[in-house]
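call fold(seq) -> tokens
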Amino acid sequence: MNKKILAVIVSSAFFVGCATTSGNKNTTDEKAEVQNALTELKNGVSIHFANNSSQIDPQYQPYLLAAAKGLAQSPDFKLKIDGHTDGSGTKAVNQKLSLARANSVATVLVAEHSVNSDQLATEGFGSSKPIASNSTVEGRATNRRATVTLITP
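ret:
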């Protein structure tokens, strides 16, 4: 997992933990933490998947909760969720799986975190936009992702 993703997860987990366990955490501090998560989202953050899977690993749940809180505070903001695969498999299978990955993220945000579905846009790109070489195990793992990007008005 790259350092940027880990930093977002850690800062989001801190935010979620503080917001839910501290009785004296004030609204200004909570909004600042959400704003930090939204700033990271503007550059796009990747959620990685196992091979042939669209199931989200539990490690990403704190991040998704922070994103949901940010969207709730800013109804004009939207998330673009782009699904991707590695180069294994056929073009048709990869297209279907990449869209399933994007939709999986959207489904969690709507069903578990009450995000307004109008704030989400999903698209699958198959294996057409790799960010690493598909010739190595590590590269293929890096390419199996959904990239979540904040779109502001």
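The longest strand covers residues 78-84.
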